[in-house]
């Protein structure tokens, strides 16, 4: 099938809201998702990990310490414990009472109110743990609106075995010697480098395109960099400021 994530000539950059609109609302919360939706994001990015009782939640760090009023490694906390946490007060008093969403809750909201998901498998120690995340995507009937990314090549191999219909993106902080070969080996729809990594060899964007592979660059919040990466021909930009990137797109 043709790669629908490749940007046609002259089309705007695809706007991916990093952990939701996380410059304006607490990351990985329903508030961040709503602000991103209103700001015109094409995709919402999140980070998914399992609780001690195997429920997929949105959480970036290994511990809940930075982004909630609790403490401890999320994989040691039960869903009953996680559901009691305040995930908004640390960001601003106006968000007091925001909770840590389950992946199921997030997907249900996207399905009914609009929006596609860039699901980052942040931590999973086994194929069974990845399967628990994909089971929720299936149960919410969202397999046609979810794109999976990870820094872990094992995670991507497991997703490919479990749900070959899902598009895959590989996150990299340093470019591979041959990104096209890696993309082919893993069956990637997109190769997702940091901005700094991409700047070391911008020509990889064209090489990937020639192989039918898109590029999503992270995490880019300034118009100066949007212009640079637009010039490289990247397809999507992952940003904490989706409304501003949408506005920048329209001004081009
Ligand atoms: O989507 C790219 C980015 O989210 C990867 O890094 O640490 O923010 O999850 P991190
Ligand atoms: Ca992420």
UniProtKB/TrEMBL annotation:
Residue ranges constituting the GP-PDE domain according to the UniProt record: 13-249
Recorded coiled-coil stretches: none
Name under which the protein is recorded: GP-PDE domain-containing protein
Organism: Streptomyces daghestanicus
Covered range of the whole protein: 230 to 481 of 640
